[in-house]
Design brief:
The complex is a heterodimer of chains A (about 290) and B (about 700).
Chain A (H helix, E strand, L loop, with lengths): L1 H47 L31 H37 L1 H16 L2 H12 L3 H28 L2 H8 L4 H37 L11 H7 L9 H32 L1
Chain B lengths: L23 E12 L2 E13 L4 E5 L6 H9 L9 E8 L2 E2 L5 H11 E4 L3 H4 L6 H9 L2 H10 L5 H4 L9 H13 L5 E5 L7 H18 L2 E6 L2 H7 L2 E6 L2 E7 H6 L4 H9 L38 H5 L14 E2 L4 H22 L29 E15 L5 E15 L3 E5 L6 H9 L6 E5 L6 E4 L3 H4 L6 H6 L9 H14 L16 H13 L5 E5 L7 H18 L2 E6 L2 H7 L2 E6 L2 E7 H6 L4 H9 L47 E3 L16 E3 L8
Parallel strand pairs in B: 3-8, 3-9, 6-7, 7-8, 14-18, 14-19, 16-17, 17-18
Antiparallel strand pairs in B: 1-2, 1-4, 4-5, 9-10, 10-11, 12-13, 12-15, 19-20, 20-22, 21-22
Helix pairs in contact in B: 4-5, 4-7, 5-7, 7-8, 18-19
Classes of the chains: A mainly alpha (about 290), B alpha/beta (about 700).
Family (chain B): Belongs to the ABC transporter superfamily.
Pfam families (chain B): ABC_tran (PF00005), oligo_HPY (PF08352)
GO biological process, one term (chain B): peptide transport
Chain lengths: ~290, ~700
C-alpha cells in the first residue's frame, strides 16, 4: 500500500516544478492576450458602440442594466457604454502612441549618445537632463494654456516630457554593451560603424527598452486621465474618461455610476497595461536564460 | 568502514583514534541537479576515500562533475538546482547527505576547510581581511599565527587591509589561512591556483603541500591540470562524466596509466618534450549533445572501445599486482600498449603523407585598405611588423581609488618577420596583452613607433571567444559581414563562408547557430574562421586556448598552426604558458613589467634560458616529474615598477647595479654572430637578453 502510494506520488512531485513553469508561461500569454483584446476594442470602438457617444437618446439617468443602455445614461441622456468605449479608445491609443514615440525618439538619442560617447554624448545627455527636469503635468498645462486644449496638444505635451526616460535607459545599456569584447571584435573585423550600431549594439538594447516601455503604458494612461480630469483634454462634448469623471463628480451621491464608470475604466486600463508589462518582462527574462 | 561505527554526532572527531581511518568516505555517490525543469545526473556513482595527511588530486575536464563533488562534500549543493543525492557520503564521521543541518554546519566549521578558485569573490569585499580571518580563527593572535603559517609577509599590517588591496597570491593565502583555522581534518581546494600567475601558483601549491604534511589533514585538490596534481598529490583520481576513471598513487597514474582517458589526457598535455614539428596529439572530441550513454561514458571517444564497452558499465577494480591502483576499464591491462601501437601507426601514416617540400604560402588577400595611420611599408626586408621603443601609459585608479599612471609598455623594440610565429610570454601585468592590442590598433601607443599593416590585414583572436562573438547574431552573419568589400554575389559569399567553416573543421550546419548554442571549442573555431575568412597578413592571438580544456586546446593550437601554414600568415601569440609558447612560436619573447627581457628561438630559449626571470618561469611550469621550485616574491605592481631592472627585487643573482642600471634593461644580442653581413641578417637570427649579466649566470 505504502509502495503504491509512493509510486504514484514520486512522478507527480518531480513534474511539479515543470508544470509550474508552463503555467507561468501560459499566464503570461493570457495577460498579453488581454492587452491585445483591449487594443482591439479600442480600435473597433466606433463599431462596437451601440449609440452615438455625443448625441442624446431621450432617457435621462437610466441605471445600470436598463434595456438598451447596459451601463445606463447620464444627465442629458448620453449612452455611458458608448462614451466609455470611445473614451477608452482615446486613452489607450494615445498612451500607446506616446510610448512608441518616446521609444523612437529616446531610443535614437540614447543610441547615438551611447555609441559615440564624447562630446555628442555630453550634449545629448544634457539636453535630456533639461527635459527630465521639467515637471510633466506643468508642461502639459503650459502647452494647453499656450496652444489651447485639444487632443494634439495634450499628446505633444506628454510626449515632450516622456522620451528622456528612454534616452537615459537606452544610453546606459548601449554604454554597457559598447565595452563588451564582441564590439571590439566587430571593430577588429572591419565592420562599419553604422552596422556596429545597428547589428552589434541595438539588438542588445531592445529587450530592456521594450520591458521599460511596456511597464510605462499604464502610467501614461493615468497621466492622460489626470490631465483630462483637469480639463486639459478635448473640449466638452467629446467622450473622455478623465473629463467625464470630473464633470459628473457632483452627481457622485445621487447617480454614482455616472462618474464611477469612467474612473473604474481608467483603473482597469492601467492595471491591464501593468500586468501586460510584467508579462513582457517575464517572457523576455525567461527567453534570455 | 564507517558504517560499523556508532554514529556520534556530538563528537566532532569520532574517528580520531584510528590514524588511517579516511576523513571522507564516498560510496556510490550519485547527485542529480535540475536546470529548467530537466534533471541530469552529474555524479554517477563515485567511490572514494580521502585519508588524513594525504593530498588527493581530483583531475577532470570541465563538466566532469569535480566541482559538484566538492560542493557535495561540503554539504553545500545549490538548493536552487533541486539536488537529489543518493549513496553514502561521510566527512569526519558526519553524514553529509542525510545528517541534520546543524550537524552538517558543525562539521563544516570544525572539520572542513575550503579554498575556492577566485579568492576575490569568496572573500567579503566590505570587511578587512583580519576580521574575516579572526572570524574563522577565533582570536587575533591565532589569526596572525595562521597568516604567518601560510607565508603572508607582515601579517599584522595585512590584517588591516581590504581584500582588493592584496595581490591575487596573497588573497589566496588568506583563504588558505581561513581554511586551516581550527585544525580541519579535510581541506577542499577547488582549482585554487587556476587564477594565479605561474610563479605564484608554485608558491601556493607549496603552501598547501606543507600544510597537509604539518597538520596531518587530508586535502582534496581539484584541478584540470594533471601537472599540477602531479606536483603535490600523493594520489590522483581521474574523473570523467561523473565517474572515476582511474585512481592510484601519483607516480603510478602518471607513469603507468591504465585508463584510455588518462592516457589520452597525458598525451594531449603539453610539456617541454612535446614534438614541435608534428601536430599535437588530441582526444576524439566529446560527442554532441552529451546525452546519457549506456555502458562506459568514455566509449564514444575511446579508440579501444569494444562491444562490451557499449553495453556494460565497468566497475573500478583494483588492478592485479598493483595495489591501490584501479581503473574503470575492461581493457585496462592492455590499454597502454594498444594505444601506443595506434599512435605509432598514425605517426607512420602521417610521415608517409607529409609533403616533400614546404608548401608555398598563398599570397594573402588583403582586405579593405582603409586610411592608414601608421607607415604601411616594411621597415626592413622580411620584417612585416616592427616596433621601436613602444610605450603605452594609462591613467587608472590604484587600490585606494586614487588616480595613478600605469606604464603598461615601457619601451618595446621588436621586429616580427613575415611568416614567422612569435610567442609573447609573461605573467599578468607584463604588458603582453597591451602590446598585442597596440599591434592590433585597438589601443593607441603613447610613445615610440610602429610600422606594419593595418585594417583588415591584421586580425585578432580573443581570449574569450564566447564574449567576442555577438550573442544575437548567427555564425552565418558573423562571417558574411567580413565579406562586404568587394561586393560578392550571394552564392559566392555562401561558398566562401562554408569554405571558411570547413577550414576550421566545422560543419555547414553551424551556420545558423548562435554563439550560445556552441561549445567553447566550437566558438574559438568560429572566431578563427571569422579572422581568417579574408586571409590576414598578421594574426594576433590573445591566449585563445587558456579557457579551454587540455584536449580542446590541443585541437585549437593544431588548427592555428595549420591555418598559418596554409595562408602564409604571421602569427603573434600571447600566452602565459611557456609550454604552449614553445609549441606555437618559432621565437619566444619574454616580457616582464612592460619590457622584453629575453628573446630567442623557441628551442634555444626553453633549453637554455639566459635571463633569471625566464629561468624562474620555466621552472614554475607544472610538469609530471617537476619538483616545486622556490621562487621569491610576486610580480611587482605595474603601478609602481621597481627602478632599474624591474626584476631585481626577486632576482637571485641581482647585484647592486641592477637597481639603477640603464644598460641592463636593453636587449643585447648574445651568442655567436650569424654568418654574413649584420645588416641583412634576419632579426630572428640572434638571441638577445636584457640583463646586466648578459646571459652569463
Amino acid at each position: 500500500m505504502a509502495a503504491l502510494v509512493a509510486g504514484v506520488e514520486t512522478p507527480t512531485r518531480s513534474r511539479l516544478p515543470r508544470r509550474h513553469l508552463v503555467g507561468g508561461r501560459l499566464l503570461n500569454h493570457c495577460l498579453l492576450g488581454l492587452v491585445g483584446l483591449v487594443t482591439l476594442v479600442a480600435v473597433l470602438a466606433p463599431l462596437l458602440a451601440p449609440h452615438d457617444a455625443v448625441g442624446t437618446s431621450g432617457q435621462l439617468y437610466a441605471g445600470i442594466g436598463s434595456p438598451g443602455h447596459p451601463l445606463g445614461t447620464d444627465g442629458i441622456g448620453r449612452d455611458l457604454l458608448s462614451r466609455t468605449l470611445l473614451g477608452l479608445r482615446t486613452s489607450w491609443l494615445m498612451a500607446l502612441a506616446v510610448v512608441a514615440l518616446g521609444l523612437l525618439v529616446g531610443g535614437i538619442v540614447g543610441l547615438l549618445a551611447g555609441a559615440f560617447g564624447g562630446w555628442l554624448d555630453a550634449v545629448l545627455m544634457r539636453v535630456t537632463d533639461l527635459f527630465l527636469a521639467l515637471p510633466g503635468t506643468l508642461v502639459a498645462v503650459a502647452v494647453a494654456a499656450a496652444l489651447g486644449s485639444g487632443l494634439g496638444n495634450t499628446f505633444l505635451a506628454i510626449s515632450v516630457v516622456w522620451w528622456p526616460y528612454y534616452a537615459r535607459i537606452v544610453r546606459g545599456e548601449v554604454r554597457a554593451l559598447a565595452v563588451r569584447p564582441h564590439v571590439e571584435a566587430a571593430r577588429m573585423a572591419g565592420v562599419s560603424t553604422p552596422r556596429i550600431i545597428l547589428r552589434h549594439l541595438l539588438p542588445g538594447v531592445v529587450p530592456s527598452a521594450v520591458v521599460t516601455a511596456s511597464l510605462d503604458v499604464g502610467s501614461v494612461v493615468l497621466v492622460l486621465a489626470s490631465l483630462s480630469f483637469l480639463g486639459l483634454g478635448q473640449s466638452a462634448p467629446a467622450p473622455e474618461l478623465g473629463a467625464d469623471t470630473s464633470r459628473a463628480l457632483p452627481e457622485l451621491l445621487t447617480h454614482w455610476w455616472i462618474p464611477v464608470i469612467p474612473g473604474v475604466t481608467v483603473m482597469l486600463l492601467s492595471l491591464v497595461a501593468n500586468l501586460g508589462g510584467d508579462a513582457v518582462r517575464d517572457l523576455i527574462a525567461r527567453r534570455g536564460r | 568502514m564507517l558504517d560499523t561505527q556508532p554514529a556520534t554526532p556530538e563528537s566532532a572527531a569520532p574517528t580520531a583514534e584510528a590514524p588511517d581511518t579516511p576523513v571522507a568516505t564516498l560510496r556510490d555517490l550519485r547527485v542529480s541537479l535540475s536546470r529548467d525543469g530537466t534533471s541530469s545526473e552529474v555524479l554517477r556513482g563515485v567511490d572514494l576515500d580521502i585519508r588524513p595527511g594525504e593530498v588527493l588530486g581530483l583531475v577532470g575536464e570541465s563538466g566532469s562533475g569535480k566541482s559538484v563533488l566538492a560542493l557535495a562534500l561540503l554539504g553545500l549543493l545549490p538548493a536552487g538546482s533541486a539536488p537529489r543525492v543518493a549513496g553514502q557520503l561521510r566527512v569526519a564521521g558526519v553524514d553529509m547527505v542525510n545528517g541534520a543541518e546543524e550537524e552538517r554546519r558543525l562539521a563544516r566549521r570544525e572539520s572542513l576547510g575550503v579554498v575556492f578558485q577566485d579568492p576575490m569573490t569568496s572573500l567579503n569585499p566590505t570587511m578587512r581581511v583580519g576580521q574575516q580571518v579572526v572570524e574563522a580563527a577565533g582570536s587575533a593572535d591565532e589569526a596572525i599565527r595562521l597568516l604567518r603559517a601560510v607565508g603572508v609577509p607582515e601579517p599584522e599590517r595585512r590584517m588591516r587591509a581590504f581584500p582588493h588591496e592584496l595581490s591575487g597570491g596573497l588573497r589566496q593565502r588568506v583563504m588558505i589561512a581561513m581554511a586551516i583555522a581550527g585544525g580541519p581534518r579535510l581541506i577542499v581546494a577547488d582549482e585554487p591556483t587556476t587564477a594565479l600567475d605561474v610563479t605564484v601558483q608554485s608558491q601556493v601549491l607549496g603552501v598547501l603541500r606543507r600544510l597537509s604534511d604539518d597538520l596531518g589533514c587530508g586535502v582534496l585538490m581539484i584541478t584540470h591540470d594533471l601537472g599540477v596534481a602531479g606536483q603535490i598529490a600523493d594520489r590522483i583520481a581521474v574523473m570523467y562524466r561523473g565517474r572515476l576513471a582511474e585512481v592510484g598513487p601519483t607516480r603510478r597514474v602518471l607513469n603507468e596509466p591504465r585508463h584510455p582517458y588518462t592516457l589520452g589526457l597525458l598525451a594531449s598535455r603539453l610539456d617541454f618534450d612535446t614534438d614541435r614539428d608534428s601536430p599535437l596529439r588530441t582526444l576524439v572530441p566529446e560527442p554532441a549533445g552529451g546525452a546519457a550513454v549506456a555502458g562506459c561514458a568514455y566509449h564514444p571517444r575511446c579508440p579501444l572501445a569494444v562491444d562490451r564497452c557499449h553495453a556494460e558499465l565497468p566497475g573500478l577494480p583494483e588492478l592485479p599486482v598493483r595495489p591501490e591502483h584501479s581503473a574503470a576499464c575492461f581493457r585496462a591491462e592492455e590499454s597502454r600498449d594498444r594505444l601506443l601501437e595506434i599512435a605509432h601507426r598514425e605517426a607512420a601514416a602521417a610521415d608517409a603523407a607529409k609533403p616533400t617540400g614546404p608548401a608555398e604560402p598563398a599570397e594573402p588577400v588583403v582586405g579593405d585598405a582603409t586610411a592608414v595611420e601608421r607607415e604601411d611599408r616594411p621597415a626592413r626586408p622580411g620584417v612585416v611588423l616592427a616596433t621601436t621603443e613602444l610605450e603605452c601609459r594609462f591613467t587608472v585608479r590604484d587600490r585606494r581609488g586614487r588616480k595613478a599612471p600605469l606604464a603598461a609598455l615601457r619601451g618595446v623594440t621588436l621586429d616580427i618577420e613575415a611568416g614567422e610565429s612569435l610567442a609573447l610570454v609573461g605573467e599578468s601585468g607584463s604588458g603582453k596583452s597591451t602590446l598585442l592590442r597596440v599591434l592590433a590598433g585597438l589601443q593607441k601607443a603613447t610613445g615610440g613607433g610602429i610600422t606594419g599593416p593595418t585594417g583588415g590585414a591584421v586580425q585578432m583572436v580573443f581570449q574569450d571567444a564566447g564574449a567576442s562573438l555577438t550573442p544575437w547574431l548567427t555564425v552565418r552573419e558573423l562571417l558574411t559581414e567580413r565579406l562586404r568589400r568587394p561586393r560578392l554575389d550571394r552564392a559566392e559569399r555562401h561558398r566562401r563562408v562554408v569554405a571558411a567553416l570547413d577550414s576550421v573543421g566545422l560543419p555547414e550546419a553551424t551556420l545558423d547557430a548562435r554563439p550560445a548554442e556552441l561549445s567553447g571549442g566550437q566558438r574559438q573555431r568560429v572566431a578563427l574562421a571569422r579572422a581568417t575568412i579574408v586571409p590576414p597578413r598578421v594574426l594576433l592571438c590573445d591566449e585563445p586556448t587558456s579557457a579551454l580544456d587540455v584536449s580542446l586546446a590541443a585541437h585549437v593550437l593544431n588548427l592555428i598552426q595549420r591555418l598559418r601554414a596554409e595562408l602564409g600568415m604571421t602569427v603573434v601569440f600571447v600566452t602565459h604558458d611557456l609550454s604552449v609558447a614553445r609549441i606555437i612560436g618559432d621565437r619566444i619573447a619574454v616580457m616582464y613589467l612592460g619590457r622584453l627581457v629575453e628573446i630567442g628561438s623557441a628551442d634555444e630559449l626553453v633549453a637554455d634560458p639566459r635571463h633569471p626571470y625566464t629561468r624562474a618561469l620555466l621552472s614554475a611550469v607544472p610538469g609530471l616529474d617537476v619538483e616545486l621550485p622556490t621562487i621569491e616574491g610576486e610580480p611587482a605592481s605595474p603601478l609602481a615598477p621597481p627602478s632599474g631592472c624591474a626584476y631585481h627585487p626577486r632576482c637571485p643573482v641581482a647585484t647592486e647595479e641592477c637597481a639603477d642600471t640603464l644598460t641592463g634593461i636593453q636587449l643585447v644580442p648574445i651568442g655567436p654572430r650569424p654568418p654574413g653581413p649584420a645588416r641583412t641578417a634576419p632579426p630572428s637570427a640572434r638571441r638577445a637578453v636584457a640583463c646586466v649579466h648578459r646571459g652569463e649566470i
